[in-house]
Amino acid sequence: xxxxxxxxxEFWVGQRVHSSGDSRxxxxxxxxxxxxxxxxTWVGVDWDNGEGKHDGSINGVRYFHAKSxxxxxxxxxxxxxxxxxxxxxxxxxxxxxxxxxEEDEMYVLSTSNKRVSVQLLGKxxxxxxxxxxxxxxxxxxxxxxxxxxxxxCDIKTTVPNIKELDLxxxxxxxxxxxxxxxxxxxxxxxxxxxxxxxxxxxxELPLLKSIRVLVLNNTGVDWEQVELLGLSLTTIExxxxxxxxxxxxxxxxxxxVHGFDSLRxxxxxxxxxxxxxxxxxxxQLRCLxxxxxxKNCLNSLFYPxxxxxxxxxxTCYKPFQNLCCLLLGDNNICDLASVDSLNLFxxxxxxxxxxxxxxxxxxxxxxxxxxxxxxxxxxxLNGSEVTRRERKDSEIRYVRLVISRLHASPEEIKQHxxxxxxxxxxxIEDEKPSIGASGPQTISSGFLSITLKCVGASMGxxxxxxxxxxxxxxxxxxxxxxxSFFKLKFMKLKLFLQEEE
Length: 501
Fold this sequence. Notes:
Elements: E1 16-19, E2 22-34, E3 41-47, E4 57-58, E5 61-62, E6 72-75, E7 80-81, E8 84-85, H1 86-94, H2 100-104, E9 107-109, E10 115-117, H3 123-131, E11 138-140, E12 146-148, H4 152-158, E13 164-166, H5 175-184, E14 190-192, E15 213-215, H6 223-230, E16 238-240, E17 265-267, H7 276-280, E18 290-292, H8 308-311, E19 325-327, H9 336-341, E20 350-352, H10 368-374, E21 380-381, E22 384-385, H11 388-406, H12 419-425, E23 435-436, E24 439-440, E25 447-452, E26 465-470, H13 475-486
Parallel strand pairs: 8-12, 11-13, 13-14, 14-15, 15-16, 16-17, 17-18, 18-19, 19-20, 20-21
Antiparallel strand pairs: 1-2, 1-7, 2-3, 3-6, 4-5, 9-10, 21-22, 23-24, 25-26
């Protein structure tokens, strides 16, 4: 990307820059001035990707503090780019012709591993439409080096109908610039600012009535910034704040988060939240339907038995009244009490618990069928639909598993709050052990009655056989028995289970 006409190699501390030869190599200016032993002016940069040469000191002299031991380096001003304006990026992305190098890269490999060039049908027509900015409704300017809005009034007159704008990985850092862009795009509903390192929110943003989806992943914002931004985002429906090292949720005016009256989805994945009490501060967001908490540090969770302490402030809504999707994958949840508490959420049907100790069989976790049986309302578990058939099979299997354990440890019943309900619902009788207090039971009490029917077309008519087999008979053993019963040696058998339904 070429330097903008206004680029004069004048740098200041805190400025966001990228390498002249690579718009994805982005960093923050930490020092501008001389370096002992070297001529002329140098710019000390702390690179986002951590790929530098030192920590801000060289030959025993410290010039700045980098975020890690090898994320800093000194660069000549001519090798850094200060970025371009939003409109310059739009011109470059949508009105410039593709270069010969870009055209050469448009190919697929044949079966003989030879390059076959790709010709885009209707490319000129598509390019022509995109180049008419007044018709442009969606624009992606990711990693284009955008550092400023440019002349504000030019934005509104040039691209008046932009509804979706992706500014991922640019050089924006000031909220006033973001406010200017939003104010000049009255139709803008979705804005992605991921991987722009935003400075703390200082001045007041204009009222951003049209923004409904805001993505602030890896931007360095904390919850205090989110609350301040919320005052301007009066119609926000989706807020994504992944990867911002958020560990605490700090409401401004009370112990609970209020406002965000239209917020349906909140994405807090890949942060550092360890205490469920922090999450409870979100429980009065009455429109919240989806809460993403994957990749945090949560050890347990709960739903308050008496919600009054969470209902007393301003409203009387039940905690997480409309929450239907809760993603908790890749945390540290290790207790079944946390799993059982999910039943208390009024409308929760979509749950993710994968990559937690409680679901890791290598660490004593429980299998999927146990989770389904314990979670009465779950319809989607770990991204997979729970069918009626799977629920029935899981609940029956779970009840029989618990029954088998209760003979040895009757007090374990306390750890299975749904056991009695499921046992009665499915009409499952207790299985009596073969040896009881009054002596040996009848041999038949441990047997199951199974009807075997041979259905192979080439085997002739064979009468069904009803056999009583031990409940411990494996599928492999049953196959061997079928070979014997029906005289089917040297044949590959398949077993099918036919139930009354």
